[in-house]
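TICKET #2291
ISSUE: user wants both folds in one file
ATTACHMENT 1:
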Amino acid sequence: MPLLKKLYPLLTCLLLLQVATIAQSADNDLYLQSSEVNNIMVQYDADAGNLHRFYFVDNSPEQLSRMTTLVKSYQQRLEELNYTRLNVGAQVDYTLFKRRLLQALEELTLAQQESAQLKKWFPFAEKIYQVEQHRRRGEKPDAPALAAQLSDMAKEIARSRQQLETDSSLTLPQIRRGISTIKGLREALSSVFTFYNGYDPLFSWWVPAPYKQVDSLLKTYSATFYNKEKSTARMPDDGSGIAGHPIGRTALIKGLQEEMIPYTPEELLAIANKEFAWCDAEMEKATREMGLGTDWKAAMEKVKNSYVPPADQPAAMMKLYNESVDFIKQHNLITLPPLAEETWRMIMMTPERQLVNPFFTGGEEFSVSYPVSSMSHEDKMMSMRGNNPHFSRATVHHELLAGHALQEFMQNRYKTYRHFETPFWIEGWALYWERLLWDQGFAQSPEDRIGMLFWRKHRCARIIFSINYHTGKWTPQQCIDFLVDRVGHERANAEGEVRRSFVGGYSPLYQIAYMIGGLQFEALKKELVDSGKMSFKQYHDAVLRENMMPIEMLRAILLNKPVPKDFTSSWRFYKL
């Protein structure tokens, strides 16, 4: 026993050493989860969350001022780091967090400027802000005075609305700022009313009627701003029923710079047209193999008519999924965690959602797009033809494994503090898998190749119609016609695609990001895998363990290339 007591400290040290060794194993290496910038980013998100929940009224002076102070304080904290001592991963975090703070400050400055320009349209706003400020700490209101104040506000709102109806001086950004300002004012008043009504007898007696009057007038005032927005921003209906908001070439260039894509819109069009020409040539080869000469549209018709009967689509999708996963495993392309395979879910897409998503979508939840009984016969046929097995063969790995479902799975497990969201990583990675499996021979027949080429042409077309639309050269109807005539879409599906692109809540660069992001991942693959520096599995696993970011920054990490503190995007990943 005395000997055991003497050995106890030594055994304890050995045990602790073993634990530490395990903690530094490949899966638990602290650097896989952190960097020197990590704590600052996590604290910023927490602080910003507290402030947004407390100063919840959008565009209120105190919200804009307080958030500006916060952003500047974190810019200072970031600047105090010794940049030269950071490793490449931390330099990437520094660069991207610095960009994020700069963008936040620019947005806050713009909000303050536009709010100041709109001040004459909201002479009653400060009174509402003050009432909400007193409510936060539970101050007892002077109910009769508040009722009188609300009654006066109602008159001011009515006058402002009448003046707005005949005014044509507001710009589109100012109009949109006005809409969001009214939303914030209504939320502020609602928080006051909900807090006191039913608890304070005098408040419940005096305030409900004038509150409801003011809220109703604010709602009408907002509708007046919306009407201004429609007449100012939207292109006239060209018969498609789709009226979006073209942003112009200058805004496109600014967005590309922020996404670290050092190409002009015209260069992106050239890339898309070059890739489209390749697709046309491959489509002709597959058409000839099908015995249809050069009539690619006849080949497309044959492929579309291979659709499965109603109720059989989920089983058809499972068959394709299993073939895809088996293929990925056989070629040792990436690590597929068993839990990721086990826990993705399947649902059927609603008819309403199919209006903007005519094809299945994925992630942890796989949403099958196929007709339901309430659809017209014509819409049923277009949906079945557009979701035939050969078309779906190209995209099952895009939506599930190793595409969006695996992305989501890994994002929740590695470097979770990185919130550098970009569609060039999200959609580019999934599109890259379509291209990779083509190169690896996943297509089993010329019909499979037609299906895969349909989607590849579609990605090219997204760049072409998005840029032409946002630079004012094409209308939505021209975009629809292009998808039907040059890609082979069913018309209803083409309409859904264009509607999704322009009024579905996606950023103007989102549709461009599919192929361009995929080409970035492909270029990085050439540098790392084709050169022999990494295997496919090492490369693909490494990508997902770094989490989401612009791909040029990912390239710096994987190639261990130091990032200059004054970094500007320069990676020309595609040769024109």
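ATTACHMENT 2:
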Amino acid sequence: MQKKSNKKVLYNTIFAFYFEFNKLKMSLLFKIQIVLTFSLCILITGYAQKAEDILMKVGSTDVTVGEFRYIYEKNNGANANYSEASINEYLDLYTKFKLKVEKAKQIKLDTIEALKVELDGYRMQLAGSYLIDKEVTEFLLKELYERMKYDVEFSHIFVPVAENAPNQTKQDAMQKLKDIKNKISSGTLTFENAVSTWSDDRATAANGGSMGYFTAKLPSGFYELESAIYKIPVGSVSDVIHTKIGFHLVKVTNKRPSRGLIEVAHILIETPGVEKAENIYNQLKNGSKFEDLLALHSIDKTYSGAGGKLPVFGINTYDVKFEDAAFALINPGDISKPVLTNSGWHIIKLINRLKPDTYEVFVKRMKSQINKDERFNAAKFKLIEDIKKASGYKADLKELSAFTSTLTDEFYSYKWTPDSTLRSDKMLFSIGGNTRYSIKEFADYCKKNSKTRLKYDNTKPLNETVNELFTDYVNQKALEYEEKNLPVKYPDFKSLMREYEEGILLFEITRMHVWDKANQDTSGLKLFFQNHQKSYNWPERATLATINIKSVDKSEIEKIYDFANKNDIQAIQKKYSDKPELVKIIESSCEKQSKDCPNLPWQKGVLSPLEMADNGYKFVKIIEIIPSKPKSLSDARGYAVADYQDYLEKEWIKQLTKEFKVATKQDVLKKLKK
């Protein structure tokens, strides 16, 4: 599995590598930086051209403006400025790429079964995540971003029901609220009267069920409530809403632009203390410093050390009176009149009003949270229902019921096996008219899905377990059906799959014509090396001896150093061969002007100055200067193979250019450039 995953990355790396290699290669040394970002939504801004306009024809293949823009923007990122130089350079690279792909198709690499299976595997992996990302996550992010622009005031009638309550209890609560809604709709009962009579939220019943203002996002488990208060008009009453704490009828009483987030500081004065609060407020109005009066009078010791500054907050964080006064302040530095809450008297100073996040920043901050929220499952369920409706989903529930009637409690065990007489030609349900699934296929799914079957026992009715499995199976097939339509529905997904397919073909055709040939064609490599021998030389080098002296006796150290200066390395080794604990010699080599070479005159016999080392001293002696000379093929093989590959590719491109005609529409190309 790991091998396949690595190859998948490699295919896409090859695609990017091809362009980056040609742009960044410098002599024998080059740097390649590849950024692989599978962005599922490529920004394509408005142009005068249509995406389907033909930009060029490579062999028998048309390249549209949309295709070129997609890959140009993806690979150039922030540098995709559509300048003439940039477009010309990239068009040349892309043309060479398309020539290789055209050759791969000509020799029918795209018909090789193993490659087709591999591409289908990638398509399935991408399609599932793409569909959810596009149809669920992106929808939820846009929805939430828009909702957060408003605060909504609402009231509710509430009937509490535990999440794990019996179905009958839930149905009774729902029916109770349905009856109330009918009376309100008919005019026989006002919402406010219904609250006082029927709502079990006694904390709000006295004030008409008012919950005050709320803003999205509500906690997980309250998505249906959030959707209701944002969707129904002011003054309207919702249908029955189910949350994780029970059932609600909601009336929206007002909507306003979101107050957002602010940062304030406050001076807190004990209660009673209105005269003191007024006196402090007047001093502030007359020029006294907020920080000085805070230090003298505020009883909020938690935040007094921070200049009275509270953490950034939005609505429903503090007392409503405190929040109303805080959000009424307009400019940083504005100060409120004294405000009384249960905590005491507050004098509030506005520090800052935070600007709302841009959508891009919001997405980065919220995407991971959205996917863990209950709303994600709700939106996924809605997507499936929309798919079923649009595709003309039909089911034969009698067939399902007949299957269920044959089951016993063995269904809840590993031993259960589908009846061998189940028919594969009898439709259980269909999606899209022509895509049909039989009762036998569903039974096989139940067999494989032992996890769902075994999590229950015979205390749960068989029909409920089968219905749950059936729902899961239908949902899975509905998503698969939609995934197959992604290339039609989303041009960017089609482009992504084309990129994968052509990446696979590029990898295979380049392997055949360049990589394998360069490594296996020993005679060709040898001839290439001989013809370019001058490019593969050893630079001038020096052999060195690093002499370590394990001693602190200065006279002994100087004696060894003087001997090394007057004698060659063999004499030094011979003289101190019986004293390895005193003198240790390490030989090495380095290329001229290399950072690994000591900073010494470049000549044989030169010594470096003594320098301190572990438990003693050391110095370096140049043993020999080795002139530049040609490398052997074995010495230069890595460089030679890389250069031979480059040579083979260039020759191959020349051949492909002769084999396949390339026709670029200059008028279309001109419109692309800025």
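RESOLUTION: both attachments delivered.
EXTRA DETAIL ON ATTACHMENT 2: The chain has five domains: 1-106+490-536+635-674, 149-257, 261-354, 391-486, 538-630.
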